[in-house]
Input
Amino acid sequence: MEGGGKGKSGEKESFAQYLTRICGITVAVCIGLQFLDVPDVISQFALQLIRYVALLFGVFVLLPAALQYVWRNRLKWMNRFREWRQQERPIMMAVSASKEQLEAQAVGVYPVSTTPVVSAPSGPVIKGQLSAPYSLLPVNPKPHSTSNLQVEGAGQLISDALQLAGIPLEGEIDILSVESGPTLQTISFQLPPKVQLSKLISKKDDIANHIGHHRGFDVTSAPKFRSAAAFVVPQADRAFVYMRDMAEELQAFADTAALPVIFGSDILGKPMIFDLARTPHLLVAGATGSGKSVFINTMINSLILTRSPKQVKFLLIDPKQVEFTIYRGLPHLLGAPVSDMRKAMLALNKVIVEMEQRYEKFAQSDVRNIKAYNVKNKHDMLPYIVVIIDEYADLMLVSGDEVEDGVQRITQMARAAGIHLVLGTQRPSVNVVTGVIKANLPSRVAFQLQSAVDYRTVLDRGAPPLLGFGDGICMLQGASLQRFQSAATSADDIEATDLIGALKDYWSTDTSKEHDWPSQAEEDKPSAASEDQDPPWEKEDQKEDSSDTEHEETEEHDHPSDSSLSEYDQVLAVVLAHGGFSMEVVQRKLKISYAAATKHVERMLSSGIIGPIDPVRKMRPLILDDQAQHELEQAETLQKMKRYICEYRSAKSSELREVFSIRKEKVLEYMQQLVDEGFLNPPENSRAGYTLAWSEEQMQAFLENN
Output
């Protein structure tokens, strides 16, 4: 219902505005009559009329306005209630864990502790006393930024920027959170009425112009809130991120990881530490001054700090002849850093020969990978080998086809042999980073590049304009993009050089300082830090059906129903991902009772999947025979094949054979499995090929989640 008149702007009044105006005039007249010499009857009538008008105004104006306010702010209050519940959850979990521990002790099974191995502080801090060699790391002189925005200032900043960008607002901007990191600040706010996130993204350049940040600004959805947006705003005064800031986390992570490396801090300042052996190879791209070389040096220093010369060896290829010369004399090197491009290919060929020799050793020892070999051969343990090429484009210019074939062979076959490759380049053109190379390097890191085309070449998708000096984006195993600030040894080149010299002396003077090798079970066990950051390798689908014989033997004893088999498969996936059966982890992830988890323990024990409880780790370690390991590797290959088909929208068997170096019969077997899953359509005739059955939306969702 519309009011009868128009406002000053020419727009029609709403019913509430019209009624407010009429009520106001009526009340004013009635009050005026009280000051005039009028009969008592008229005065009493005026007072009675004021009461009726107030009731009318409350019912038809105030009450609808209050209900509308409650409805508009329902999401904010729900989010605050959810945050309060999350704050109370640790207390409830502690009480539940205590109760569970008492129940577990009654039956002689002790659940593992939930204490995280690697903490995630809110920002970089200067650590206390560290043991050698971590104590050699330089101290960060500026671990915190001094330009953090407050909630009030952030609300005014966003409101002004949106209005100047031509986005109309109704009311004030509701700021949900302001989270600050060393380089960036994330301002989450409730989307204004009638404003969609897509509209903000389309106006991103205009908003950035009015905020005053032309580079590094980004508009995204707020991950912690519903119907909310987030502005990623660069810090006016950036903090430094040093390796020493996360030395304690690196030391703890090294107990379970094969090749622990520091990436840096995420946009909220939380440490990002990963296992290079699980990536398993890495492409690093960045223009001059972007922080690419600093990032690679941080990876090298991480491994030197945590691994002895008997545990890891490096092959460093340095076409620029300036980046890796400081590592000469380091006992971790296979040889002097290679700077002659003619010798670089010979060095890569030696790595391939070493890989083939290792596989011969594995066959003689009846094992499938380096972890199993080192567990079985304590007297002849093999070191991991990390091959790092600082400028891959220069190698391609000298002998492109030969280099590409060697790199392809290493990336496809060397992971199980404990050989991992890191490729760095300043010029990520399609002639350098070819489709074959990208298919075998699903883990990639991009720093500031010259154009949007370069970002798409490296990441297969667009990226926000980066700030340089270590502001980067990583994509591990083809998962979603994650922005971070790369860590540095020091901003002072002299300090960084002195650290390398001190590490040379540390590892050369006393060989008794060897670090213990992580056991096979520990290497398979993910740390708490990797669970917090939801790394992609822990997200991969690792479900594996038991053999028909195992199912038949189990059914003879337990006769499980179809629903219990489904639940069993979920438990098996958790056990495979965790590296063993932890009662608490299984219950927490699948939300099942203690009795149900106990039944799965008995079934896996009888099937030989898990072993006796480890009193040190307080869990039952995973025991996989060769058949189970083979099936797991097949599942991993099938997942990579699906990702490749979704990325390139191609299901040609000949192309898949070339990319994955698989026999024709095996490729056709995999493709038939994809047909059974509904991912591919079978050929219509003998001359036709397989076609995609999934829609564009399904493929895009698969790429985002895998």
